[in-house]
Amino acid sequence: MAKAQIQSVRGMYDILPERRRLFDHVMNVFSQAADDAGYGRVETPLLEDEALFIRSVGEGTDVVDKELYSFEDRGGKRLALRPEGTAGVVRAYLEHGMASWPQPVKLYYLEEMFRYDRPQEGRYRQHKQMGAEVIGDAHASTDAQLIVLLGRVLKRLRLPGISLQLNTIGDNACRPAYRKVLVEYLHAHEQELAAIDRERVAKNPLRVLDSKEAKTRAVLEDAPQTLNHLCEDCQAHFAGVLEYLDDLGVSYELNPLLVRGLDYYTRTVFEFYGEREGSQSSLGGGGRYDLLIEQLGGSATPAVGFASGIDRVLLEMESAAVVPELAKVKGVYVASLGEPARLAAFRLTQGLLDAGVRASGMVDKDSIGAQLARADRLGVPYAVIIGQREVRDETVILRDMASGAQEIVPIKSIIAELRLRFGIT
Ligand code: HAM
């Protein structure tokens, strides 16, 4: 009996070469924009102490309570696969004494995240994020700078119809009072709330605000809004963020129900959406987290950041048909026919590679037609053909794959000739 084949883990997938190039394209656009704006790339481990996420993202959030991949290692230590990037970056900031670097510290990352979520299109158990964090700066222009950075990346990827939603959720000075008013309102309407939200009122009342349940949403129409319960500092900060965005002509929508799913936020929160239908359309989001560094053992340090799901950005690009035609690979396929050509073809392929020319070929018994079909599939502009006669004459046939035109070139000059045609200096 044939053995059952092992499949990839649910919610995790392989990225095959063609699609991988598109990921690289998105990542390159992001890295370029972040590098230009003075951010340095950071990489943190995929595994962290579980407590890091419990203390930052927060108990009571779906990401920690329901979606964390956590386990005990062989030494009995509780570890977790990171579900998001901010906590690890802040841990690294503290661990490497970055507080003594010139502030603010501007970092970006391109990393895999893991969430035990219900898989569906645009929502996976392993996904890639591109994110940026500015640590050590409380100024409203920094919030605006980050919002504009992500906006610029999405624009460079030629995504149409991107919208931006903004809100502020206050800080320790004003949020407790707001929370109280909100809880009173929600209690007064408890019977009208969806069951899942009734539970949330006690655990994490602000999360009720972004409920997807129709019943709850109806209740929320008249719910108290953070904007009307801000302390003076939070009010001034938010006004500052809007001023910078207005000055650049960035359009946004104020959404009083936007709260985000992680506990560390204070003040500004934002989210970018695409045009695709459905609740999975948030292309990226972030906000301020002025209390997190202290919460993780550092001294009070303001910070703000965002992350965007690369998988979702790609889906959005595909649905808007703005996936770029990636440049054809400049290279050559070496085809050979017959035993005497075998060594010459192998030697030439390796010689081309030594000389910095992309080259591939296979020493096999396929017909020239089959080999040229393979060259076509690779999309290379040239094929070099070597048969018995070419070996004898010390020549090769150089074939232009687009036109089919062929010419005879001495084998000793073919490498220089191809370098010239590919502009390799
Ligand atoms: P987040 O909103 O949880 O924020 O995730 C950021 C983005 O990652 C989302 O907007 C979405 O595009 C993508 N994403 C999240 N979960 C999935 C999933 N299961 N499958 C595919 N894509 C997903 C954060 O993670 C914060 N650390 C952002 C941040 C940085 N805030 C401040 N600094």
Question: Which helices and strands occur, and which strands form pairs?
Answer:
Blueprint: H1 17-36, E1 40-41, E2 47-49, H2 50-58, H3 62-65, E3 70-72, E4 78-81, H4 86-95, E5 105-114, E6 126-135, H5 140-156, E7 163-168, H6 175-188, H7 195-203, H8 214-220, H9 232-247, E8 253-254, E9 266-273, E10 282-288, H10 292-295, E11 303-309, H11 310-319, E12 332-336, H12 339-354, E13 359-361, H13 368-378, E14 382-386, H14 388-393, E15 395-400, E16 406-410, H15 414-421
Parallel strand pairs: 1-5, 7-8, 12-13, 12-14
Antiparallel strand pairs: 2-4, 3-4, 5-6, 6-11, 7-9, 9-10, 10-11, 14-15, 15-16
Histidyl-adenosine monophosphate binds next to strand 6, strand 10, strand 11 and helix 11.
The tally of strands reads 16
Strand order of the largest sheet: 1-5-6-11-10-9-7-8
Shape: elongated
Please tell me the total number of domains.
Answer: 2
CATH class of the largest domain: Alpha Beta
CATH T-level fold name of the largest domain: BirA Bifunctional Protein, domain 2
Strand content: 15-25%
The bound ligands are: histidyl-adenosine monophosphate
What is the terminal separation in angstroms? 58 Å
- Tell me the CATH architecture of the largest domain: 2-Layer Sandwich
* Helix share bin: 25-40%
Q: Give a quick account of the main beta sheet: strands, pairing sense, barrel closure.
A: 8 strands, mixed
Overall average pLDDT: 94
Radius of gyration, taken over Cα atoms and rounded to an integer in Å:
28 Å
Count helical runs: 15
Uncertain regions: pLDDT < 50 for 5+ in a row?
Answer: none
Structural class: alpha+beta
CATH level-four homologous superfamily name of the largest domain: Bira Bifunctional Protein, Domain 2
